[in-house]
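Write out the bound-state structure for NDP.
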Amino acid sequence: MKKILLPARPSVNLDADEGRGYNAGGCSGFPDIALENHHRFCSVPGYRKGQSVMVHRLIILGSGPAGYTAALYAARANLRPLLIDGGVGRGQELLGAGGQLMITTDVENYPGFEHGIQGPELMHRMRQQVLRFGTEIVEDLATRVDLSERPFRVWVNEQVYQARALIIATGASARWLGLPEERPVWEGGLGGAGISACATCDGFFFRGKEVAVVGGGDTAMEEAIYLTNHCTRVHVIHRRDALRASKIMQDRAFRNPKITFVWNSVVEKVHDPAQKRVTGLTLRDVKTGETRELAVEGLFVAIGHKPNTDLFVGQLQLDPTGYIVTHHDVRTSRYAVFAAGDVQDSEYRQAVTAAGSGCMAAIQAERLLEAEGDSMPDSAPDW
Ligand code: NDP
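---
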């Protein structure tokens, strides 16, 4: 169920779009309408052309570091952004509000926190900061967008929101191996019943047990190290004989006496869906083709992420792996649509780079809207 989070009355001057012709009708006195009533009056369910729907200056999709930073800059520029935080639909495919840092433990490389900070704590602070400056947050998931003309339309189920500019910061989600056993337990698999993509969420359930982690990157090392707090042994299964993880994470994992590495191997099968719990894995050596059994009671998949761009297929230019293609740092193939963070960055994928690109997107959006004044063209030669 959607919930709209309203900021406390901010001290900044909330100069909305009243009287400038941005509203599609009926909402020209926006600041005079109690915020609580704003959506009731200005956004109507089941949008049809010609209906009265308020046009926001800027909608931001996503609530990771990119989305929150974009909201912070936009709110401080008096754009009064509406942020749709993706807060429902949490599961194997989608992250909840706060994005990937909500399932991270120590963040040691975000500047300003000498002794590190827990991922969820960092995101909580970012959220409080954007609320303080007047960002309005819709606690729900965007289900459809129409970017074919301005104002752009964004649906949250039956509810439609309109905006002159859009910042997409929908991030990325965990990748899965593609095994049938990864399906949720109610579909005959072991997803949520021993197979997980989040050690910090589920590690506790495996205390005193032996588990496996698949992957050779920083996420896999982080998950494996975290799991050693709960588990008796953690087997890291990697398809090559060298890790992709950063040197510091490799060193920590190699030094940990509870971590064992299984090189050149992939998981072929997870046992035993019939028992509704993980009892072991069939591993295949990719060099020799030989298979062997490994007795574990949990499997953590940590093989990277895929960008959350399903909503934009056919509407924006995506690269072959699904990331939004940007130019001028954060401009997409569609005028007035910006993208920031992991949804457009397959290279750096760091919280701090995501935050930086969120800032760029907000500044560019602000300049675009400022330059346009009252007009709302569908394109511009210098985009
Ligand atoms: P990566 O893409 O870096 O690593 C994915 C790993 O999974 C690789 O080792 C890859 O193998 C393996 N893999 C991919 N697909 C499969 C498959 N189908 N079967 C088996 N193995 C597979 O993703 P991460 O999520 O680890 O990291 C993403 C980014 O986030 C990186 O930039 C990383 O540095 C950063 N990060 C930083 C952290 C920190 O600083 N604390 C923590 C977590 C992430 P191969 O190596 O053969 O390609």
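---
The CA atoms of residues 30 and 38 lie 7 Å apart.
The mean pLDDT is 86.
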